[in-house]
Design goal:
- By secondary structure, the protein is mainly alpha-helical.
- The protein has a single domain, classed as Serine Threonine Protein Phosphatase 5, Tetratricopeptide repeat (Alpha Horseshoe).
- About 80% of the residues lie in helices and about 0% in strands.
Length: about 100
Amino acid sequence: MTERIEKLLKFLEASPKDCFLNHALALEYVKAGDEAAAKTYFEKNLANDATYVATYYHLGKLLERTGQTQDAISTYEKGMEAAKAAKDMHSYNELQGAYEDLAY
């Protein structure tokens, strides 16, 4: 386990619902090649706060890589809704591009 993962896990002990920490930990697991752990933390993040828009893109990409195409499409759709509600057009456009690349 990398030093960053260990540090993030310690920080999460004190703040288990911290979206930034959960997202950062999931990304570290992606880098380490542990996509199952990454998926767990991305999903935990969305369960804690469905408005944390960044997680949708990265979870969608993970689902694509693991052959879960329909789940990835659904994740992008939910992310576009969340981004639109947050008036975050940059994220909306990224999610829409990923969605269109996969769906069409």
